[in-house]
Amino acid sequence: MITPEMPIPRQGETAVRVRYCECDPMGVAHHAAYVPWFEIGRTELLRAAGVSYAALESAGIFLVITHLDVRYRRPARYDDNLIVITRVTGGGRARIDHDYELWREDQPGAGRSELLSTASTTLACVGSDGRPRPLPEWLTAAAHG
After folding, report:
1. Alpha carbons 25 and 57: distance in angstroms, whole number
2. Among residues 8, 60, 70, 61, which one has the least CA distance to residue 39?
3. Burial bucket for residue 33 (CB in 10 Å: 0-12, 13-18, 19+)
4. Residue 109, helix vs strand vs coil
5. Secondary structure letter of residue 8 according to DSSP
6. With contact defined as beta carbons under 8 Å apart, do 8 and 41 qualify?
7. What is the pLDDT of residues 86-111, one digit of tens each?
8. What average pLDDT does this structure show over 11-38?
9. Whole-model pTM above 0.85?
10. Per-residue pLDDT averaged across 28-40, rounded?
11. CA distance linking residue 122 with residue 130, whole number of Å
């Protein structure tokens, strides 16, 4: 049984840096690189409460993406410092909804300077058999908190 050390935050900020392997020859981050950055934001919300995705999966709880919408506004570039803002925006008995903002910051720790992208996801809870299952009560409370 998984028990978080504290409530799952409804919002969090995570710093990432654009890596060379995520870019085209002009140094612009590929559009597919944004999705893992949003995933990092989600996993860090759980980690802030003392829960890891690995622990969820060991308990037979899997969160799968059923919806993803990304809006690109400005390009991220090689070696940019980025801030991923992740918010829990809703959910249900077996799903969690998140919204994201991806910001460039001029210097690490200097704060947001330019909005690069927004996104939203819906995650469904499934068991190890791939069939839908209810979220753990503590995770449902976080989604509705």
Report:
1. 37
2. 70
3. middle
4. coil
5. P
6. no
7. 999 999 999 999 999 999 998 777 77
8. 97
9. yes
10. 97
11. 16
28 residue type, one letter:
V
* 130 Cβ neighbours under 8 A, 6+ residues apart: 62
Q: 58 Cβ partners below 8 Å, 6+ apart? A: none
- Second CATH level (architecture) for the domain 11-144: Roll (3.10)
Q: How far apart are CA 138 and CA 117, in angstroms?
A: 30
Q: Where are the domains of the chain?
A: 11-144
pLDDT of 143 above 70 = no
Contact (CB, 8 A) for 61 and 128: no
- Among the listed residues 127, 80, 132, the one whose alpha carbon sits nearest the alpha carbon of residue 108: 80
- Give the Cα separation of 15 and 38 in Å (integer): 11
- Cα–Cα distances in angstroms (integers) from residue 86 to residues 4, 26, 89, 124, 127, in the given order: 19, 28, 9, 17, 25
Helices and strands (DSSP H and E) totals, the chain: 3, 5
Mean pLDDT of the chain: 92
Q: Which uninterrupted H or E stretch holds 144?
A: helix 137-144
For the stretch 64-86, pLDDT in tens is: 999 999 999 999 999 999 999 99
